[in-house]
């Protein structure tokens, strides 16, 4: 059972200093991991600096809204819900990025309250569904054929959000898919299919 820390209200959203610290920690680590991945591990290059900036923006949007979606749906059901980082996985993600792969498991929204299979499934699918919506948003801008930095931000925004949606639907451990699968198989395969289709579209929209 979670022991709720002192609350901080940001508008209508209830959070805490612990949650804000863990979000910042996870955001920084995942941005670095994707920056390393996208730059091919060239740490002392302009490409790495640009990749970290792009990753920070796109991962920031995708990661924050993914976790916020979980949190808001859980709180709507009357649950205590706060994000906690998985520090070991943050380190592993950064190390694995040098080998061309990112383990996108920076943490999870911890929930305490009246949650059954149905509610847990709905809370869990909210995150990947948000990433899919963001990926479509970036895709729609790409169809306008933007140039320069905007084109790169939109492309990697689509890539990162589609990847986050697909990766988080793994049906085991603490991933979202492990809670969506027992609740609704149709929803599970729909999210997998849409996220997979977005990933397959990437070569055709690359600037």
Kindly list the characteristics that best describe this protein.
single chain, 207 residues, mainly alpha, two-stranded antiparallel ribbon, two-stranded antiparallel sheet, 67% helix
Report on the structure:
With 207 residues, the protein is mostly helical. It contains seven helices and four strands. It has one domain (8-205). The protein has helices at residues 17-38, 46-76, 87-97, 117-142, 148-167, 177-183, 185-205, and strands at 8-10, 13-15, 80-85, 107-112. The strands form two sheets. Strands 1-2 form a two-stranded antiparallel ribbon. The chain has a two-stranded antiparallel ribbon with strand order 3-4. Helix 1 runs parallel beside helix 3, helix 2 crosses helix 5 and helix 5 (148-167) packs antiparallel against helix 7 (185-205). The longest helix is centred in the N-terminal third of the chain and has 31 residues, at 46-76.
């Amino acid at each position: 059972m979670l022991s709720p820390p002192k609350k901080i209200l940001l508008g209508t959203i209830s959070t805490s200093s612990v949650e804000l610290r863990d979000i910042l920690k996870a955001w920084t680590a995942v941005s670095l991991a994707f920056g390393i991945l996208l730059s091919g591990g060239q740490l002392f290059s302009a490409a790495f600096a640009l990749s970290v900036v792009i990753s920070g923006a796109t991962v920031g949007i995708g990661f924050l809204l993914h976790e916020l979606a979980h949190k808001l749906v859980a709180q709507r059901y009357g649950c205590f819900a706060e994000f906690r980082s998985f520090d070991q996985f943050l380190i592993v993600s950064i190390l694995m990025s040098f080998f061309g792969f990112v383990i996108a498991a920076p943490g999870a929204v911890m929930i305490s309250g009246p949650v059954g299979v149905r509610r847990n499934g709905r809370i869990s699918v909210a995150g990947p569904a948000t990433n899919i919506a963001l990926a479509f948003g970036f895709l729609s801008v790409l169809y306008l054929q933007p140039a320069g930095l905007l084109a790169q931000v939109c492309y990697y925004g689509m890539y990162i959000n589609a990847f986050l949606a697909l990766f988080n639907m793994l049906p085991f451990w603490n991933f979202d898919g492990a809670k969506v699968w027992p609740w609704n198989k149709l929803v599970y395969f729909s999210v997998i299919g849409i996220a997979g289709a977005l990933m397959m579209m990437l070569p055709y929209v690359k600037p």
